[in-house]
UniProtKB/TrEMBL annotation, chain A:
Gene3D superfamilies: Nucleotide-binding domain of ferredoxin-NADP reductase (FNR) module, Translation factors. This is Ferredoxin reductase. Keywords: 2Fe-2S, Iron, Iron-sulfur, Metal-binding. Its cofactor is FAD. It comes from Streptomyces lanatus. Pfam families: FAD_binding_6, NAD_binding_1. It comes from the Bacteria. The keyword Electron transport does not apply. Signal peptide: none annotated.
From TrEMBL, chain B:
InterPro entries: DUF6510 (IPR045423). This is DUF6510 family protein. It holds the Pfam family DUF6510. It comes from Streptomyces lanatus.
From TrEMBL, chain C:
It comes from Streptomyces lanatus. Pfam families: Oxidored_molyb. Residues 35-179 form the Oxidoreductase molybdopterin-binding domain. Residues 1-30 are annotated as: Disordered. InterPro entries: OxRdtase_Mopterin-bd_dom (IPR000572), OxRdtase_Mopterin-bd_sf (IPR036374). PANTHER family: OXIDOREDUCTASE MOLYBDOPTERIN-BINDING DOMAIN-CONTAINING PROTEIN, PROTEIN-METHIONINE-SULFOXIDE REDUCTASE. This is Sulfite oxidase-like oxidoreductase.
Length: 247, 102, 199
């Protein structure tokens, strides 16, 4: 496990940094990806997150955590933000921010829900909705590193129009298998009727427990709860199932 | 991952009310020079062990409250006051923090 | 200079005039919790008042319902900086519950189902300042807001208004509760902005 020092955390306590919005890309009707440039960004591990702090003119301040979507490149990072209707922070990030704006940010943080390219065991990624973001970071990091570690992705999402990174996932990568699990509305020629994730989905699209894969599950709390329980039921060791729940 | 600081939930946060111990990483980075969410802790109540990252963290509260994933008792509390971080670990017997080999 | 996020206002109505320092108004009712929400059936519910001599007074749900009720309309101030105005409650005044309780104690430790605790001076729970509340806005008090019954001490920060209240312990000495042992102020007066220890 994490025996070496965590890259990006070179023995310094973290401080808030100012990041500048360098790009904005629409991912779906409700999600955008913001590219942030941060001077002296130390780089990050796949699966880590950052804390974002917003402060109004009258001093009101609030913060949220967002997973990093992009592989570490030493200069910038991408955050994909899903708009929560009635939310306080996500509509601001999705609708208000434009390139040139600045944000306060602290990170990268988290050393548990991460994938390192030194890992050689097969990997199962299970995403619920925008829980795909840190898993996409793992997929991109694997590709950027030229890793041959076999990855399987199960992506549970409401309907085809809610897909994040649709064309990138369709394009695929050698050694990456992707299965879509639509919960409300599937494609016309789909063999699987729309519905919530089941143990059969995980058995069919995942790895046999004998292969001792590491499983990363990210999504809303109820989704993660259920999926992690199914994986253990299927015979995966609990310590091989790593989870990241949304609040 | 999206999450909420003390102050209440986003309107449609209707889930179980807790997140993983991963969420401790940012707030504790203010005090620790290494990531402590990978540290192994032992519950003072039931004795089970595991990384802090697997605790259940309640964050819609005046501070962060991390509970044992087995028995639910409070293992760690972290509160941010104006000028200090208060860390109560009376619910954890020990904390083994990976720091690399000497 | 402090950093400002251009164009960020937060999800807040315009500030009223009755706000304690550092507070913002909300029209929602945020749910704060430090653990799983206890689900207590009214049939199993009990509230005890224990004096410093160990004498115990206990009410079950029917006993609580048999007591005269008040309908206070109060403002709530949470230490996490939101305030909510004009909330309507139904409950029993602590004056009623403590009427036959003999005590010379000055301190109270309030305990809850689920293990939560908070401390309040006895003087702040009497003379019409506090209730055991079981109704909110015309209905039953929902479990996530402390139902079946919670303490309501609206002149102090809301963490003092213990949800799922189960016990009122009258004590000779002051024992700090859950948040009071974790950096929060021992008394918690929102108008003096007593959020943290040392305020």
């Amino acid at each position: 496990m994490a025996r070496a020092a965590v890259p990006g955390r070179l023995g310094d306590r973290l401080r808030w940094r100012i990041a500048e919005v360098a790009g904005r890309r629409v991912e779906s009707a409700t999600a955008v990806t913001l590219t942030l440039e941060i001077p002296d960004w130390p780089g990050h591990l796949a699966g880590q997150h950052v804390d974002v702090r917003l402060t109004a003119e009258d001093g009101y301040s609030t913060q949220r955590s967002y997973s990093i979507a992009s592989a570490s490149n030493g200069r910038s990072l991408d955050l994909t933000v899903q708009r929560t209707s009635g939310g306080e922070v996500s509509p601001y990030l999705v609708d208000e921010l434009v390139p040139g704006d600045q944000l306060e940010l602290r990170g990268p943080v988290g050393g548990w829900f991460v994938w390192r390219q030194q890992q050689t065991e097969p990997v199962l990624l299970v995403a619920g909705g925008s829980g795909l973001v840190p898993l996409m970071c793992m997929i991109r990091t694997r590709e950027a590193a030229g890793s041959r570690t076999p990855f399987r992705l199960l992506y549970a999402v409401r309907s085809p129009s809610d897909l994040l990174y649709g064309s990138e996932l369709r394009q695929g990568a050698p050694g990456l298998d992707t299965t879509y699990l639509y919960s409300r509305e599937a494609l016309k020629d789909s063999a699987r009727p729309p519905g919530r994730i089941t143990p059969e989905d995980l058995a069919r699209g995942g790895w046999p427990p004998d292969f001792e894969p590491t499983c990363y599950v990210c999504g809303p709390t109820a989704f993660v709860e259920k999926t992690a329980a199914y994986l253990v039921l299927l015979g995966h060791a609990p310590e091989r199932v790593r989870t990241e729940r949304f609040g | 991952m999206t999450s909420v600081e003390p102050g209440g939930s986003e309107v449609n946060d209707t889930d179980a009310g807790y997140v993983d111990g991963n969420a401790l990483a940012g707030p504790l980075s203010e005090v620790f020079a290494v990531d402590v969410t990978t540290a192994t802790s032992r519950c003072a109540n039931c004795g089970c062990t595991g990384p802090l990252a697997r605790l259940r963290v309640y964050k819609h509260a005046p501070g962060l409250v991390a509970r044992c994933q087995q028995c639910g008792s409070v293992m760690l509390r972290a509160t941010r006051t104006r000028d200090a971080v208060w860390l109560d670990m009376s619910g954890a017997v020990s904390l083994a923090i990976p720091v690399g080999e000497t | 200079m402090a950093f400002i996020s251009r164009g960020f206002h937060g999800r807040r109505p315009s500030a009223g005039t009755k706000l304690p320092p550092g507070q913002y108004e909300t029209t929602g009712f945020p749910v704060l919790s430090a653990g799983p929400t206890p689900r207590i059936r009214k049939d199993d519910w009990q509230l005890s008042v224990t004096t410093e001599t160990g004498k115990r007074h206990v009410w079950d749900w029917a006993g609580l319902m048999a007591l005269p009720a008040d309908s206070p309309t109060v403002d709530l101030h949470c230490v996490t900086k939101w305030s909510k105005f004009g909330t309507q409650w139904q409950g029993v005044s602590l004056d009623v519950l403590l009427a036959d309780v003999e005590t010379s104690a000055e301190h109270v430790l309030v305990t809850s189902y689920g293990g939560y605790t908070t401390n309040v001076p006895l003087a702040d729970l009497v003379d019409g300042k506090a209730w055991i509340a079981y109704g909110y806005e015309g209905g039953d008090l929902a479990p996530e807001h402390g139902g079946p019954a919670r303490l309501l001490v609206p002149h102090l920060y809301l963490w003092k208004s213990a949800k799922w209240v189960s016990g009122i312990e009258l004590r000779q000495s002051d024992v700090p509760g859950f948040w009071e042992t974790a950096g929060y102020h021992n008394y918690g007066d929102p108008w003096r902005e007593q959020r943290y220890q040392g305020d």
